[in-house]
Amino acid sequence: MAAPSMKERQACWGARDEYWKCLDDNTEDASKCKKLRSSFESSCPQQWIKYFDKRRDYLKFKEKFEAGDFQPSKMTAKS
């Protein structure tokens, strides 16, 4: 697989940013972002999508943790 060109990278990042913004704006109903998710998947290499998905999960966890909103699960608290 060849590395994406600068134009392809910019298209991928733009699609990712639009999708993430939609998720932030629609925290209660992520189904509203299906078209943007599809655009994100078609604009980015599969490995990048996997990385960006994990990165978003981590950033959201970090945000909650730093704000003091993180609550460990009952299973975690018992161990």
Automatic annotation (TrEMBL):
Cellular compartment(s): Mitochondrion intermembrane space
Coiled coil: none
Keyword presence, Disulfide bond: yes
Species name: Muntiacus muntjak (Barking deer)
CDD domains: Cyt_c_Oxidase_VIb (cd00926)
GO biological-process terms attached to the record: mitochondrial ATP synthesis coupled electron transport; respiratory chain complex IV assembly
Name under which the protein is recorded: Cytochrome c oxidase assembly factor 6 homolog
InterPro entries: COA6, COX6B-like, CX6/COA6-like_sf
A Pfam family matched in the record: COX6B
Role played: Involved in the maturation of the mitochondrial respiratory chain complex IV subunit MT-CO2/COX2. Thereby, may regulate early steps of complex IV assembly. Mitochondrial respiratory chain complex IV or cytochrome c oxidase is the component of the respiratory chain that catalyzes the transfer of electrons from intermembrane space cytochrome c to molecular oxygen in the matrix and as a consequence contributes to the proton gradient involved in mitochondrial ATP synthesis. May also be required for efficient formation of respiratory supercomplexes comprised of complexes III and IV.
UniProt KW keywords: Disulfide bond, Mitochondrion
Family: Belongs to the cytochrome c oxidase subunit 6B family.
Highest taxon above the source species: Eukaryota
One cellular component (GO) term of this entry: mitochondrial intermembrane space
